[in-house]
Amino acid sequence: MIVRKPLVIGTLIVLIAVFALTRPQFHSQTVHKQPAAEFLNPLILKEQQEKARVFKMRKAALQTAIDAYFKKAIEDRLIIGAGVSIVTGDSIILKSGYGKRNVYKSDTVNDQTVFRLGSLSKGFTGILAGIEVKEGNLSWEDKLIDAVPAFGLKDKANAQTITLSNVLSHTTGVPYHCYTNLVEDGLKLQTIADRFKVINTYTKPGLIYSYQNAMFALSGEMMHAATGQTLQALLQNKLFTPLHMNTASTDYEAMITTNNYAFPHKSTWKGWRRLPVNKKYFNAVAAGGVNASADDMGKWMRFLLGHNETILDAEGLAAVFKPEIEIPDAHKYYQRWKGHLRSSYAYGWRVHEFVDAETGNASTMIHHGGSVSDFRNEIAIFPGEDLGICVLFNSQTSLASSVIPELHELVKNVMNTPVEGLELGKLASAY
User: Pfam families recorded for this chain (predicted)?
Assistant: First the structure.
């Protein structure tokens, strides 16, 4: 049995050893134009140079800490490989790969290595719906049955009232994970939509949270009906291309024809075993069919933090991230994170509220996990800190349940741990 040792403590040792700064803020890499007189002012110029120096040092400190964290995870055989991106403000301060993308070869993961995202795809779908609503092509109250006539339920009245809002927030009233098996069997969405006609609902739409894949995927059919474009085309034209997510895709062929993609792996008593990339969920792109790299996810998070309003402005993002239904306490891994108060579901995103036990300060995290065919991923946005963290794994791993709070803690330590004046040798030997 593999015994997992704490990863954060070891990486903090490295972090402190390289980190010798006194104030907690990462600064944007963006250079803003200054009036000529102000730009030539020696004091202002010196201040800008100091900010750039501090930014560079903090970035290097974070890189060293994150490198140590994932090196230990690989040594402890918790993971075979990972793609990691961290964003603060409008700057991607880290995009790195760790470990192997194929255990049988020397191929290593880098920031361009493509992973399958699984349910992180739902966040793309929610945002795309927000864009279509903003452009007037859709309404949150549009009826599913109007866009997908093949759809039905045993309770015809409930079938008539399910909206786009219900579909994206898992509040349709149908049983938990209804027809996920049909998605995994590769059936077409229109065929699955027709199969719902024999399903009894738990409640009327809008009353309970019941997580779905098949039902959620029908949101893509609604967007297709509203725009005349497939969901794949909409994602490419309205998100991937304008965000320069150059390795993102939505199909099996696009992934396996790249020269840099991760294979899924399974841990066995003999070691890691490589598995083939399969085609599951590419028939349900809205729910789990997006592929992307750490580089892509950094650009994605920068946009989600509000730093590209030409695609969707703050009002549009807020509509997507607005909690629609509270998630019952079911001892999910994210409900065990320190300070967790409650979780809700928005449109393709979970929204977690936290309270610091010491200070009483409240904070919000916008988050989703993803798991598909032995890929396991996590993404989290911290609006109050203008921070985003994403980790992509090419295996199932227990680390997925804690990687977000642990990396969040590392980032905060880079920003908040002043060690000016301490000697490197003495500090390192203290541990």
Answer: Beta-lactamase
